[in-house]
Amino acid sequence: MPDLILASGSPRRKELLAKLQIPFTSVTSNENEDFQHNLLPHEVVVELALRKAKSVSKDYPEAVIIGADTIVVLEQDVLGKPVNREHAKQMLERLSGKTHSVFTGVAIVFKEKIHCFYEKTDVTFWELTLKEIEHYLNSGESFDKAGGYGIQGLGSLFVRSIQGDYFSVVGLPISRLNRELHKMMLFK
Ligand SMILES: Cc1cn([C@H]2C[C@H](O)[C@@H](COP(=O)(O)OP(=O)(O)OP(=O)(O)O)O2)c(=O)[nH]c1=O
C-alpha cells in the first residue's frame, strides 16, 4: 500500500482525514494562494488544492498526496482568510442575514494520476448584531478561516441553515473523499 500524505497544515483537515482509519502523515505545502480572478469558484479551489498536492508530491513521488482548499463565496466575491480584525468584521457584516456558498476543492495526486473534485455547501446566516460580531472577533476564531468564521466553533451560533456537506465547510468533504479513493482503488 502506498504512503498517504495530507498536504495541509490545517488541524481540522487532519482530524477529518483520520476518520478514514488509514495511517497518514501531514506535510504543509508553502504554496502561495493567489489565483486568477477570471476563474469560477470551483475552478479556484481545485486549482489551489492541486497546487498544494503537486508541491508536496515533488518531495514524496511514491506517495498518495491529498491537497484541499476552501473559500467562501458571497454575491460572486471570493472571501478568503481575513488579514486582520477589521477585515474579519467586514466579512461577517456582509455575511449577516444572507446565504453564501462554501467551496472546497480536493486534489488526489499519485505518481502520474491526478484526480480532483469539489463540493459546494450553501450556508445561511441569521442577522448578526454588531455586539455579536464584536464578541466573536474577541474570541480570535476568525483569523485562520475562510470567510472569517468557523462553523465548528462559536461560529455555529450564526448558522440558520446549511445545505450540503458540513465537513466540506470545515475543510474536507471526507465522505466524498473516501468514495473517490475507493474508485481509484488506492486503499482497498
Ligand atoms: C468556512 C470555514 C472555513 N474553515 C477553514 C477551513 C480551512 O482550513 C480554512 C481555509 O483555508 P485554506 O487555505 O483552505 O486552508 P489552510 O490554510 O487552513 O490549510 P492548508 O492550506 O495548509 O491545507 O478555513 C473552517 O475551519 N470552518 C469554517 O466554517
Quick overview of this protein structure:
This protein is α/β, with parallel strands linked by helices. Helix content is 33%, strand content 26%. Strands 1, 2, 3, 4, 5, 6 and 7 form a seven-stranded mixed sheet that branches.
What would you say this structure looks like, in words?
The protein is of the alpha/beta class and 188 residues long. It contains six helices and seven strands. The model has no long low-confidence stretch (mean pLDDT 95). The site of thymidine-5'-triphosphate has 26 residues, from helix 1, strand 3 and helix 5. Its cofactor is a divalent metal cation. Nucleoside triphosphate pyrophosphatase that hydrolyzes dTTP and UTP. May have a dual role in cell division arrest and in preventing the incorporation of modified nucleotides into cellular nucleic acids. InterPro entries: ITPase-like_fam, Maf-like.
CATH C-level class is: Alpha Beta
List cofactors, ions and other ligands.
thymidine-5'-triphosphate
**Shape annotation:** elongated
What is the C-alpha radius of gyration, as a whole number of Å? 17 Å
CATH-defined topology: Maf protein
The mean pLDDT is 95
Low-confidence sequence ranges:
none
Structural class: alpha/beta
Cofactor: a divalent metal cation
GO molecular function: nucleoside triphosphate diphosphatase activity
EC number: 3.6.1.9
Organism: Heyndrickxia sporothermodurans
